[in-house]
Structure formats: C-alpha cells, structure tokens
C-alpha cells in the first residue's frame, strides 16, 4: 500500500515519519515562517475560524494538529475558567513550542496538552462542543479515519472546523500562486530556516490535498451534516464546517 508525501509516492507506514521529520525540523521557526510566508494573512484565516466556531464560555474544545497553539490561545480566553481546551498534536517538538509560547503569554488554567494522532483520538465519544484542525489534515495519512474519529468525539450539535489550503478558483491567480509556492517558498525556507525541503513538501502537499468539494464530500461520508465551506484569499485556503447531529 502506498500514499503520498508531497509528490513522492511512499509506503503508508513511511508517511508519518516523513511528516514527523518535517515538523521536528520546522518547529522552532514555525511561527516566524508562518507570518513571513503568508505575509501575516494566516492570522485573518484563524480569526474567521474562531468567529465561525460558535464557542462560548464553559465549552469543551479540541484543537487537533494544534501545533504552536494559535487557535488554542484564543479558545482558552473564550471558554473561560469553566471551559477547557485541549491542544493536541502528534508531534512532540511542535507541542513543546506551543506549550512554552502559551505559558509565556500567561495562558494556562483551562488548557491541557495531549500528544495524539488525529486518526485515532484518545477521547470518549461525544466529548467536544467544537473541534478544529488548522493546516493539519493535509499531513494526516488516513484522512477519512481522522474525519471519523473527530466526528465520533464531537458532542451532538458540535461543530468540526477544517481550515486548510485548497484550490484557487481563478486560473491566472493560480499560476501566480504556483510561481510563488514552487520558486519563492523553498528559497525563503532555505534562507530563514536553512530547510528548502520542508517548504517544498509544503507546496507539494497543498497541491495533492483534496479540493473544496472533495473535502466537503469526505466530511459528509464521515457522518457530518450541513457541511459548507468558505473560500479565503481567492481559494488559497478554505474553511469547511460540519455539524454532528
Ligand atoms: N494548527 C497549527 C496552525 O494552524 O498553526 C499548526 C499547523 S502545522 C502546519 C500542522 C501540524 O499537524 C503539525 O504540528 C503536525 O505535527 C500535525 N500533525 C501531522 N499529522 C498529524 C496527525 N496524524 N495527528 C495529529 N497531528 C498531526
């Protein structure tokens, strides 16, 4: 059995360790690179995700593939002392950077840190009012299993939000974006993080990820209802939302 790591065909068992290598390598510079590569726009994408989450004081939230914790930090303030937020990620390096950052910002009391694989979440059924996975699903080997696992752990009425790179609608814009991703991105990666390969993987993995409608169909197959998406920045990114009824 094979799958893809960027454009390369790799054994299913190999993918997770290749992805782990990427995030071990980028963890320390992850936040700086995010701001640089997206020119700060990832902050707007994340803000919209928060707005669409419906999260209220007292809620239970899972931020899976949460990495350095941008969404967790916002949710922590929103759910208040009676709520809880779990920052979960498969990668120890990313979790450590996230945990240190949140503690530095005085965010603590209601946040837990869990090392977990999105494909088989270690939480009971019907646990969360909201689950977010931001720029994470693309890296998961078995995306259908991950969507099922997230749906299982949502409470009835709970929302899953998937923020992920997607497919720009306009072909001209798409060409410019390709130039940027395949020529400029690896160069920035080389200069700032001394790591062109990880940023080449980033560009390739984005192209291999299911487009807006394919992801919508996958979410419906996983058992989510009222699935809809919003294109952001011309479809470079899409925010999908589904509800467990
Ligand atoms: N959500 C954060 C953000 O938006 O800035 C981090 C996104 S980062 C690009 C992708 C994260 O997905 C990495 O921290 C990586 O370790 C994590 N990841 C990859 N595969 C995973 C899996 N199977 N289960 C959980 N997390 C995973």
How does this structure look, described?
- This protein has helices at 12-26, 30-37, 42-51, 70-79, 92-104, 143-153, 171-193, 196-208, 212-221; strands spanning 2-5, 8-11, 60-64, 84-89, 111-115, 128-134, 154-165, 225-232, 237-243.
- With 245 residues, the chain is α/β, with parallel strands linked by helices.
- The protein has one domain: Vaccinia Virus protein VP39 (Rossmann fold).
- A seven-stranded mixed sheet has the order 5-4-3-6-7-9-8, sandwiched between helices. A two-stranded antiparallel ribbon has the order 1-2.
- The longest helix has 23 residues, at 171-193.
- The protein is globular, with a radius of gyration of 17 Å.
- The chain starts with a strand and ends with a strand.
- Bound molecules: S-adenosylmethionine (SAM).
- S-adenosylmethionine binds next to α1.
List the helices and strands and how they pair.
Layout: E1 2-5, E2 8-11, H1 12-26, H2 30-37, H3 42-51, E3 60-64, H4 70-79, E4 84-89, H5 92-104, E5 111-115, E6 128-134, H6 143-153, E7 154-165, H7 171-193, H8 196-208, H9 212-221, E8 225-232, E9 237-243
Parallel strand pairs: 3-4, 3-6, 4-5, 6-7
Antiparallel strand pairs: 1-2, 7-9, 8-9
Helix pairs in contact: 3-4, 7-8
Bound molecules: S-adenosylmethionine.
S-adenosylmethionine (SAM) is lined by residues 19, 23, 64-68, 70, 89-91, 94, 117-119, 134-136, 139-140.
Pathway: Quinol/quinone metabolism; menaquinone biosynthesis; menaquinol from 1,4-dihydroxy-2-naphthoate: step 2/2; Cofactor biosynthesis; ubiquinone biosynthesis
InterPro entries: SAM-dependent_MTases_sf, UbiE/COQ5_MeTrFase, UbiE/COQ5_MeTrFase_CS
Organism: Halomonas lysinitropha
């Amino acid at each position: 059995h094979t799958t893809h790591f960027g454009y390369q065909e790799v054994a299913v068992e190999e993918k997770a360790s290749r992805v782990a290598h990427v995030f071990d390598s980028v963890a320390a510079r992850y936040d700086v690179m995010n701001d640089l590569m997206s020119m700060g726009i990832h902050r707007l994408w994340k803000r919209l995700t928060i707005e669409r989450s419906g999260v209220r004081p007292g809620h239970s939230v899972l931020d899976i593939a949460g990495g350095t914790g941008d969404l967790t930090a916002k949710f922590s303030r929103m759910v208040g002392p009676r709520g809880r937020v779990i920052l979960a990620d498969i990668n120890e390096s990313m979790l450590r950077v996230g945990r240190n950052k949140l503690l530095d910002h005085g965010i603590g009391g209601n946040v837990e840190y869990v090392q977990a694989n999105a494909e088989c979440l270690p939480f009971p059924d019907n646990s969360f009012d909201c689950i977010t996975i931001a720029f994470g699903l693309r890296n998961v080997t078995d995306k259908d299993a991950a969507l099922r696992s997230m749906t299982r752990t949502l409470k009835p009425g709970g929302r899953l939000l998937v923020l992920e790179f997607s497919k720009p609608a306009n072909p001209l814009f798409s060409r410019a974006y390709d130039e940027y991703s395949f020529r400029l991105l690896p160069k920035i990666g080389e200069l700032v993080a001394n790591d062109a390969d990880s940023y080449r993987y980033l560009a390739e993995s984005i192209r291999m990820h299911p487009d807006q409608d394919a992801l919508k169909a996958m979410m419906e197959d996983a058992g989510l209802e009222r699935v809809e998406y919003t294109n952001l920045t011309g479809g470079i990114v899409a925010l999908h939302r589904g509800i467990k009824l």
